[in-house]
Amino acid sequence: MKRYILIGPLCVLGLWFAVTLTGLVDPLLLPGPVKVFAALGRLIASQKLWVDLYRTVLRWLSGVVLGVCIGVPLGIILGYFDRAYRSFELIIDFFRSVPSLALFPLFFVLFGLGEMSKVSVAAWATLVLLLVNTVYGVKYARASRLRLARLLGATTVQVFTKIVFPSALPHISAGMRVALSIALIVTVGSEMILGGQHGLGKSIMDASFRFDMSEMYATLIVVGVIGYVANRVFLLLEHKAIHWRGH
Amino acid sequence: MQHDRHILIKELSVSYANGGSPTEVLRRFTLDVPRGQFVTFFGPNGCGKTTLLNSIAGLTLPQSGEVNIRGSSEARNRIGYVFQDYRDSLLPWRTNVENVAFPLEINRVPRRQREHTAKELLTRLGCPLRENGYPYELSGGQQQLLAIAQALVNEPQVLLLDEPFNGLDYDTRLRMHEALLAIWAQTAVTTLFVSHDIEEAVYLADRLVLLTKRPARIAKLLDIGLPRPRTPELLGKPEFFELKTEALHVFQRALAE
Q1: Taking CA atoms, what residue in B is nearest to A142?
Q2: Do B106 and A153 touch (CB under 8 A)?
Q3: What is the CATH architecture assignment of A45-241?
Q4: CA distances (Å), origin A110, targets A66, A92, A113, A122
């Protein structure tokens, strides 16, 4: 059964070979797989890739952590106090509709050229997503479970930590999984726009400016692999940590 | 012998603001329940039975009247409540034992002690569960038993049950009746049981409260003098059938009103 998952990738690889070997696509724009994977090999052997990778991952995950740390508590509060949520609903929906990268110039002005502006876009993207997901998680926590807490005379802190937060966890983690992907996109995007020191996004831009398409594609593959692995690892952890999903 | 009155419900009126006009659910409802008695409630659908239990539990505030539970200053903690849907009281992220121990945790009983109490209670209830399993792995009957254990873990003086055996198949229900009556006999907890099954309501009760349509009044109080312990054989006896028939007549008159 497992073998099936390889069919898709092999098809793409085959197509890639086909269009490059037949000259259907300009090899300057899309080099063949052999060239690209050779470039990937060179990249892996070089120190540069690891420095870029490290910087990107650091920015990306700092942004995610920051966004989670702000978005989740905020979402719990807004989700719990219905009036608060309705007061901010419009503004939340508005910002949710604005692509995070479009806000980049604003962050750039606010935080300057340094790391902070890149981290903050990723954090923003995460925050908006987690805020909304947490709000929904909290709002749709069974009212009856709150009734149980009330019956037992639970304190507000106990209600939040023992009922509201765990109830919202499946929604929160679903939000985190999406946020991981989006934050990676945004991080790499901001590196492309702003350049700065190192980073996979900058590397991709640099390679394309040098017209080194093999290296550009090789770096793209690296970005894709990170996103894929992150998603997989997260799914695995989620499955373990939130075993009660759906109940 | 003069009964020790435990729960005094006096002129209780509850209405809900339902959109525009308020719906009156209870109107000057009055009832005394002696300590240790098993009282069942039976009445038309939506007549206010759940509201009555919620008022006794202090979850619903009445417009007027009062519920007085005697002999306990901290009455709130002394009420065990089994909700209509057991999923309402079982938290799926907690293990079975943690669920039973939940009320103790809210009362800040140390972990070791509360888990010991919970396990002991489960054993006493004859409820062989995987302690570290989760409620969603259990059958409906086992989950309901777990919810009952949770309601009992505080050693309440009053146990409220709101149609707790809905949705269980017949033989599971018979077993649950047996288990519940055994607990009741052991603990002498004053028990208020809302049922939508007239046979169950007669079978379990010392006293059966037959209710009218909303707003609920007492249509009739039936003393069920059947011998205890009750066993399923009773269901076939003529004295049981007589009581059931009488209850049914009252119910039908209440519906026709």
Answers
A1: B88
A2: yes
A3: Orthogonal Bundle (1.10)
A4: 17, 20, 9, 15
